[in-house]
Amino acid sequence: MTAANVVQYVVFTLIVAALVRPAGLYMERVFAGEPTWLDAVFRPLERALYRLSRVRPERGMDWREYAASVIAFTFFCTVILYAVLRFQRFLPGGPAAEYLTTSTTPDLATNTAVSFSTTTTWQAYAGETTMKYAGQLALAAESFLGGAAGLAIGIAFIRGFSGQNGRSLGNFWVDLTRAVLWVLLPIDFACGLALIGQGVPMNFAPYVHATTLEGATQVIPQGPIAVFEIIENLGTNGGGFFNSNGAHPYDNPTGVANLIEMLSIVALPAGLTHTFGRMVGRARAGWALFGVMVALFAAGLILTHLAEDAGNPAAAAANIVGPNLEGKEVRFGIGASVLTAVVTSNTSCGTYNSLDGSYMPLGVCVLLVNMLLGEIIFGGLGTGLYSIVMVALIGLFLAGLMVGRTPEYLGKKIGVGEVKLVMIFTLAYPIVILFLTAIAVRSSAGLAGLGTNSGPRALTEVIFAYASSAANNGQNMAGLSANSAFYNTTTAIAMIVGRLFLAVPALALAGRVIGQGRRPMTPGTLPSDTLTFASIALATALLVVAVNFFPVVTLGPLLEHFSMTR
Fold first, then answer.
1. 148, 108 in Cβ contact below 8 A?
2. Is 408 helix (H, G, I), strand (E, B) or coil?
3. pLDDT band at 231 (very low <50, low <70, confident <90, very high)
4. What is the dihedral of CA 59, 65, 66, 69, to 10 degrees?
5. What are the residue boundaries of the structural domains of the chain, listed by start?
6. pLDDT digit string (tens) for 84-107?
7. CB-neighbour burial class of residue 72 (10 A; exposed 0-12, middle 13-18, buried 19+)
8. Is the pTM of this model over 0.85?
9. Alpha-carbon distances of 525 from 404, 407, 514, 532, rounded to whole Å
């Protein structure tokens, strides 16, 4: 590992840490309805939207109403987006129909609509050969709405632990509106301008025909790329305007553009840990959660970099020495490629600037485990916060069993009812991933998508797809041909479970704890802001993923690694 790469990783982590406090404070003020410098612009628009939609902002919702609103909103967005995708060829504007060679069939349109409404943005198609500009803008708009909905759920979850003897988790429609207007829109505008300054196009021009040095004709797609690119990252949606995603020079032209995009993915989810600590009245508890995230993030960076830096043994046998640069852009090299791969596999943002399938088996293993951990390393916008708290609650429950004491967290009793909800949340994720993987590897329809690889690599590609879908991540290994009725349907099921079947128990838990008073700390209470607590949460996260997924990880990337190096 070179000094330049070490500096790159350290500087990135320090920038993220420096953004935690200002981002957290800002989001706290926004969702508490406190004054901000953007009020003069957005308060009148907010009131107009409430009048138009007949929302009563002063009316609070209990967890059932909040969850029902989330489900209804997700369903509505999915239906509208499905209609746009099915009839997008009738929409005005470019590009010319001759370039759109992939049809949005019913199963592909359903998969894509579910994908974007759950912030998965799994794309079983190439955007430049499938979507019109108007369709791409519709997907970008849904990226705003899906990301804002996830942030709203996270804020409602925090209110459960910050409130006392109440029922209201807030108003979903108010939280959604404020997430779009005060959080996503201004940051998207500023970062979008920065990307345009780095060379990312923002136009509606026709595709360009260019003549290469060899005399061949090359078609260069155009479009509103900048607006799509920044919100896919900021809303932790993922996806891409182009099939090659962040490896495309229009999508991600420079190292500075890559840094902006990676920071836009991580800054808000990381900042939510401080929002959490501030709202519950214990800022250090939020920093403890952030510390767990950073520890896992650093471990993933180191392991993935070492795996790629070691190179391919098969290449070494042919006297080709050096790191594994297959599938990586030369302008990014190992360092920026690994940083992007680890950042995006940690979050529910599947954008990438190198090909996941080209990574060494141990590198693939790290990316896979990051997703199997379930969005706890920064995670999705809003979803990452409640995911890591759920893991911490499992650790507290296990610690409580050892001392014969009912666990508490932030003054809230974690009793039988609360533990059941945590268990539902924890088990839904591995059940859907392993069940769908088993069906895929035992059915002809599932095996038909594996036209390139077999053996351990093929198993890795299948579980990678379902882990990515359930984690609402969206990145995939290109060896799996996923645009089929089978994979379009089964990955959509995983996306729905990963979004709604986890959000509902999280909201239900928030609804239970908000009804409690705050219990005073006693000598038998485990503080939530200590190194001991952080260590318990970290160990629990690793234990949960090992118990659920160790066999399939062993038969996939680990077996491939040992077969390659034997």
1. no
2. strand
3. confident
4. -100
5. 3-281
6. 989 888 888 888 888 888 888 899
7. exposed
8. yes
9. 12, 8, 19, 12
